[in-house]
Amino acid sequence: MIPDERQHIAELAADFRGRLDRANKALLPVQFRYFPVGACEPTSILLARFLADHGHPGFRVISAPYITNDQPELWYSHVWVGRDDLLVDITADQFNMGFPPVIVERHSDWHAKHETVEVSVEGFAPEQRAELRRVYELLCSTP
Q1: 80: domain range?
Q2: CB-side exposure of 90: number of CA atoms within 13 Å?
Q3: Which of 13, 33, 51, 132 is most exposed, with the fewest beta carbons within 10 Å of its own?
Q4: DSSP type of residue 68
């Protein structure tokens, strides 16, 4: 990946994060009401599409479905996007662990230490996919 491409991806990720920050949450589905908290999966799905629509296809939606931080009874999950050796995460700051609002990195110790699986919207119900399309259109119309 050339440096300019990584920079462009970082700019797009920051733009998309800003759109979510500025969006009228009352118009969004409940999982976005407290963005970024609890919104990593739908956000990552939409971010992958946004990157593809702006010239950067091929980002996979990656889920770490069982994160414990050494406390098995207090597990949670997290989702971000990745392509080749680059990860992009615009919701990690929900964990209050010092993450910035936008992460675009070749490596993150925190992300790398978790077992991951790929998420596909193909497994979503038609109404869930339709809702994601509606949210995407709304966010793309947000200045």
Answers
A1: 3-135
A2: 27
A3: 33
A4: -
Q: Is residue 143 part of a domain?
A: no
Q: How far is CA 77 from CA 2, 32, 34, 67, 94, in A?
A: 31, 16, 16, 6, 12
Residue 141 forms part of a structural domain: no
105 assigned to some structural domain? yes
Task: Give the global pTM.
Answer: 0.91
Residue whose C-alpha is closest to residue 22's, from 143, 135, 103:
143
Question: For 67, phi and psi rounded to 5 degrees?
Answer: -110, 130
Question: Scanning the structure block, which residue is given the tokens 């339709």?
Answer: 130
| Domain tally, the chain | 1
DSSP track, 87-118: EEESSGGGG-SS--S-EEES--HHHHTS--EE
H helix runs in 32-87, sequence order: 40-53
Contact in structure between 86 and 108 (CB atoms under 8 Å): no
Asked if residues 110 and 97 have their Cβ atoms less than 8 Å apart, the reply is yes
| Calpha distance 28→34 (Å, rounded) | 10
